[in-house]
């Protein structure tokens, strides 16, 4: 059917459009149910210190164990959570779960948690982080807050105030997916980052392309001058690891070391990567 939008323009209702809206509504209902039914899980991926080649931090990565569709990655459902406002309670849950897990890890292992722009704009975030740290007993210095550049586009003032308040709690701030967004350089100047994570798209050709090597070297040099640590994401080969080490990255994350694993697989993973650390810490 054709339908007038009131200004004499005719819009056509396509059956596929209805279908897509229907699917979205179903996903939204599924998501709400997933919250109450406890279908979300936090997985962890190690971030390695390049020099010592030991685990420095575990990054919390959200998973949805869907009853019919299996284990789902966040890119499939986080955008909708952001749209319908579910990301705030879901983000609170991730933080609490992750801090509680991390409080049982060896003291020298940090925890990185991703926050969406919607969360950073939410006025209750700083209080939420403070009370979660208090309740779980996690040392704030072990917490690293990862945000992407999009956070900073919308309302710079709010974002800046929030980031400073988070730092005042003792936590650190990392810029995620560096190089894929907008005016990265001015953001590095304005916002109080402790760490920059170079996006995986720059890592994949490391060691093979002069351009990738030059970009990583330049970013590492820049971060060094700004007293920020620099991490390469998506490291899959020894060749890439060698190259990023040569170009001056401090930390590395990727399938070369491990993918994200469930919390109960961490003791074995830490043993494999670091030696028998965990057993010592548990005593
Ligand atoms: P991210 O924070 O940049 O996380 C890195 C992503 O790259 C993860 O995907 C990780 O599994 C993947 N990855 C790690 N190493 C490699 C590698 O060597 N090769 C390849 N091809 N991929 C690698 P994942 O877990 O699917 O997460 C995707 C994105 O979803 C994250 O990107 C993050 O932006 C977002 N996300 C994850 N958990 C949360 C959360 O709790 N809250 C929010 N707001 N966002 C989250
Ligand atoms: Mg991240
Ligand atoms: Mg990233
Ligand atoms: Mg990403």
Structure keywords:
GGDEF domain-containing protein; alpha/beta; 283 residues; single chain; 12 helices; two-stranded antiparallel ribbon; globular; 45% helix; 8-stranded mixed beta barrel; 22% strand
Structural notes for this entry:
With 283 residues, this protein is α/β, with parallel strands linked by helices. Helix content is 45%, strand content 22%. The chain has an 8-stranded mixed beta barrel with strand order 3-4-6-7-8-9-10-11, surrounded by 4 helices. It has a two-stranded antiparallel ribbon with strand order 1-2. A hairpin with a 4-residue loop joins strand 3 and strand 4. Helix 3 runs parallel beside helix 5. Bound molecules: ligand C2E and magnesium ion (3 copies). Residues 59, 114, 146, 176 line the site of one magnesium ion. It comes from Rhodoblastus sphagnicola.
């Amino acid at each position: 059917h054709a339908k007038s939008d009131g200004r004499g323009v005719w819009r056509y209702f396509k059956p596929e459009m209805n279908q897509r809206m229907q699917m979205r509504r179903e996903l939204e209902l599924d998501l709400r149910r997933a919250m109450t039914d406890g279908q979300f899980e936090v997985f962890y991926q190690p971030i390695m210190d390049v020099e010592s080649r030991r685990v420095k931090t575990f990054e919390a990565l959200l998973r949805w164990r869907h009853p019919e569709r299996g284990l789902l990655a966040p890119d499939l459902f986080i955008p909708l959570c952001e749209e319908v406002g579910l990301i705030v309670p879901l983000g609170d849950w991730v933080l609490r779960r992750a801090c509680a897990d991390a409080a049982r890890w060896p003291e020298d292992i940090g925890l990185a948690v991703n926050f969406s722009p919607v969360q950073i704009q939410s006025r209750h975030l700083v209080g939420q982080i403070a009370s979660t740290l208090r309740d779980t007993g996690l040392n704030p210095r072990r917490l690293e807050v990862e945000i992407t550049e999009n956070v900073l586009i919308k309302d710079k003032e709010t974002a800046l105030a929030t980031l400073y308040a988070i730092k005042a709690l003792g936590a650190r701030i990392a810029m995620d997916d560096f190089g894929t967004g907008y005016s990265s350089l001015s953001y590095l100047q304005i916002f109080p980052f402790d760490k920059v994570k170079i996006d995986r798209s720059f890592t994949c050709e490391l060691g093979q392309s002069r351009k990738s090597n030059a970009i990583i070297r330049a970013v590492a040099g820049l971060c060094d001058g700004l007293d920020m640590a620099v991490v390469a994401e998506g490291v899959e080969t020894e060749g890439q690891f060698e190259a990023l080490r040569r170009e001056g990255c401090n930390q590395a994350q990727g399938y070369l070391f491990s993918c994200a694993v469930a919390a109960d697989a961490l003791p074995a993973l830490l043993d494999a990567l670091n030696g028998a650390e965990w057993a010592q810490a548990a005593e």
